Amino acid sequence: MHVRPSRWRLAGIGAVAVLLLLAALLSLRSGPTPPVTAAGASLVSGRAVSNAARAPWYGMRVLIDPMRFTEPLFPAPVQPRVNAEAGVLVDLDSRTVVWERNAHDSLPPASTIKLLTAMVVLENFSPDTVITVTHDALGQAGDETKMYLKAGDRLTVADLLTGLLTVSANDAAETLAVDTVGTERFVAAMNAQAAALGLHETHATSPVGLDDPLMRSSAYDLAVLAAIDVTQWPLVRHIVSTRYTVLSATATHGAYYLSNLNLLLGIYPAATGIKTGYTGNAGNCLVAMASRNGHHLISVLLNAPSYIYSQSRALLDWGFVHEGLPTQLPTPSPSHSPSPSPHH
Fold it and tell me: Residue range 74-80: average pLDDT?
């Protein structure tokens, strides 16, 4: 005897059929994940396909690093006296946050974003790669920080990174982007790199850091970028700890005399780097690192007063005492230290 199915049963059968059809269509569209050979190529229907063919459109690598800092459930009972819109102090050795204020607020980072620029460069280019400076990478405004590159100069990646991380050279930043893969691809790689590290409060619109409504980062994200830069690449550690250096003239470029803008290196014996920043919207910014008895702390202050160096020194000193390491006194007075230069 034929039994007529109920409306609910028919609806259920229809829903299952629709789901099966959708699954089939998705399978046809995406296909199975091809196996990977030992040589790093994928096999599709028995044919080897280079992974490069499946690379992102900007065609650059990103570093995968699980760097994270554990944040405390409760603040320390005694807090440092810091005047800044946002900041963080992290213990690089234990991967913990020691102090924070609005650490995840997304703010203008100024030239501290060059920590991300340097990361993209070193993940994709050898330090001894030679780059020719073109007119397209020059033309910075008069008040921007520069190493005063000239079109036709040929410098290594290491030379350009030295200018980038000491005098915060915007012409070096543009050269590293424009004269390698082009600004659009380079900035795309910067944002892909931030995403790969889980730094969701960071978005770059240029390799330089000048004010832009979409140029953002946070104190926490910048601490992670700084920590990865100095642990991954000895070259970065060397550059950011150097107070003054000369790139001697060669057959391919003139001499460059570079004084590090990070005045903390001169007023705080424990300081070992890392990057300054200033624009009208960002205010005074400083990512600083210090070492004492083999113990390493990184501080970040964003939109701080002009006495940001004494603020950073006090914060790092507080951190060392909090971690059980005695302070080192005396240190030179920072009361008359100039604020960071404009637009760097």
Answer: 85
- The set of catalytic residues is 111, 114, 168
Euclidean distance between CA atoms 205 and 190, whole angstroms: 9
Provide the mean pLDDT of the chain.
Answer: 85
pLDDT tens-digit readout, 237-253: 999 999 999 999 999 99
Spatial CA neighbour of 300 closest among 110, 65, 70, 60: 110
Q: What is the pTM of this model?
A: 0.81
Q: Where are the chain's structural domains?
A: 7-54, 86-322
Q: Tokens 């569209």: give the residue.
A: 29
Rounded to the nearest 10 degrees, what angle do helices 219-232 and 114-124 cross at? 30
Model confidence band, residue 54 (pLDDT cutoffs 50, 70, 90)? low
| Residues 198, 235: Cα–Cα separation, whole Å | 24
Q: Are strands 41-44 and 47-50 parallel, antiparallel or unpaired?
A: antiparallel
| Count of C-beta atoms within a 10 Å radius of residue 84 | 23
Among left, alpha and beta (phi > 0; psi -120 to 50; other), residue 277 is beta
Q: What is the pLDDT of residues 300-324, one digit of tens each?
A: 999 999 999 999 999 999 999 988 8
Strands (E), 102-247: 130-132, 154-156, 244-247
C-beta neighbour count of 90 within 10 angstroms: 29
Give CATH for domain 86-322: 3.40.710.10
DSSP class of 107:
B
